[in-house]
Amino acid sequence: MKLSAIGIRRLLQASSALVIVGLLLEIVSLLWFHPLSFVLFAFVAVTLIGLGILVYLLSLVFVATPPAGNGN
Amino acid sequence: MIGILICQIVLSVVLASIFLFRPSLTTGAAWKVLAFIGLCVLPALCIVGGMNTHMQRSEQTQFCISCHAMVPYGKSLYVDDPTHIPAQHFQNHRVPADMACYSCHADYGIYGPLKDKLQGLTRIYMQYVSTPPNPITIPGGFKNAQCLHCHLGARSFEENQIHAAIMDSLTSNQMSCLTSGCHDTAHDVANLSHQKFWRPVQ
User: pTM here?
Assistant: First the structure.
């Protein structure tokens, strides 16, 4: 499957969603004073944010420009 | 510090939200740069900031005793008996009171913080997934290096005749500082119910 076929819009949306969920979990982990908060941060939030960044970087590498005229 | 980090996270969330709902904005050059900042640079900085905050937080006494299994150990810091080594150090501020556990139990080697964190994660695993040990023990035993990190070179420690006579054994860890007859009363959580406790004025 070619990534360019998916389109930068989908990749950007997926990346944004992953980053947002990861960052919100990071806020929860920072406000929750408990040993498990580190687990939540290190294993869940960092993974989601990292995946979001990776998806965004992949969109830069595999998709040069978004299709014109498909924005809302 | 944590407020600044949360502001940074909120800013990242706002930027990422723009590209969640309006991905077509990235056709413009300026928006491309903003997308790079919002979806790559700021989230990466948030990870670094979060890791730093969590590492610093895990050095706090309150963090350690927030775990149920550690509550008696936290209570033992208030035992009103000068022969109890942790209590004596904590109450007289021989270690920073807000970092009391970390000061005596941290591995001060180059990879110490990493080893400590992995050991902490192992304990969390044992607490929630497998069976926590009872009583709680330190893998490999308590090392003299953790005492000597502060005491070695201190006048009162080195001028003590007993310490001077066994210095080689202490530095090589052949003889523990906690040897019976020396500083052998550590947390003693099994006998807490029989102890008197110190109450700080404030």
Answer: 0.80
Residue where one domain finishes, among candidates B41, B57, B73: B57
Q: Which tokens in the block code for residue B106?
A: 């941290």
- Asked if residue B28 and residue B14 are part of one domain, the reply reads yes
Interval B67-92 mean pLDDT: 90
DSSP A67: P
Could you check whether the bond before residue B135 is cis, i.e. omega within 30 degrees of 0? yes
Question: Could B46 and A23 be called an inter-chain contact, meaning their C-beta atoms sit closer than 8 Å?
Answer: yes
Tokens standing for residue A43 = 């294993």
Instruction: Provide the number of structural domains found in chain B.
Output: 2
**C-alpha to C-alpha distance for A13 and B22, rounded to whole angstroms:** 9
d(CA B52, CA B4): 13
Both structure tokens of A63? 């998709």
What number of residues does chain A have? Answer: 72
Contact B19 A12 (CB under 8 A): yes
Question: Which of these ranges, A36-50, B12-26, B127-141, has the smallest mean pLDDT?
Answer: B127-141
User: Nearest Cβ partner of B2 from A9, A23, A30?
Assistant: A30
